[in-house]
Amino acid sequence: TLKTPPVAPPARTPAAVLDTGWERRIRSGNVTPDTSIDLHGHTLSSAHARLNQAIAAALSRDARVLLVVTGKPPKSAESEGKRRRGAIRGEIGHWLETSPYADRIASVRVAHPRHGGDGALYLILRRKK
């Protein structure tokens, strides 16, 4: 008889929507980041490394919310002359999907204006099991 290989459980991926309490806190700006990292001025490779270090540090301290400041995304009209503007913001989604910590990220959300708005993201981290 042929044996079928065991099926791996699906990897947990970030959710687009969290429970009502989290949603209310995010919308109203009542989320308080436990820690933050500013990736402005970094090359893509150093920003990627710093992001992974920040996630590892936040998880080791059981943080729930990591504020990641990326800078504002490029405005389409301006981006023609400024090719590199918004490069980190353009890559961060891929970095988070392929991160060794991807299964520990519950959600990725645009920050409230008081925390940087479009220029920053909240990483909502899962608690340890």
SS element count, helices? 4
Radius of gyration: 17 Å
Share in helix: 25-40%
The helix/strand order is HEHEHHEE
According to CATH, what is the class? Answer: Alpha Beta
Give the CATH architecture.
2-Layer Sandwich
How many domains? 1
Average pLDDT confidence is 83
Q: Looking at CATH, which topology would you report?
A: Ribosomal Protein S8, Chain: A, domain 1
Write down how many β-strands occur, each being a DSSP E stretch of 2 or more residues. 4
Shape: globular
Major sheet details: 4 strands, mixed
Strand neighbour order, sheet with most strands: 1-2-4-3
Structural class: alpha+beta
Q: How far apart lie the N and C ends?
A: 38 Å
Structure description:
The protein is built from 4 helices and 4 strands, in the order H-E-H-E-H-H-E-E. The protein is an alpha+beta fold. It has a single domain, classed as Ribosomal Protein S8, Chain: A, domain 1. It has a 4-stranded mixed beta sheet, with helices on one face. Helix 2 links the parallel strand 1 and strand 2. The protein is globular and about 35 Å long. About 5% of the residues have low confidence.
Write the layout of secondary structure elements.
Elements: H1 20-28, E1 35-38, H2 44-60, E2 65-69, H3 76-79, H4 87-97, E3 105-110, E4 120-125
Parallel strand pairs: 1-2
Antiparallel strand pairs: 2-4, 3-4
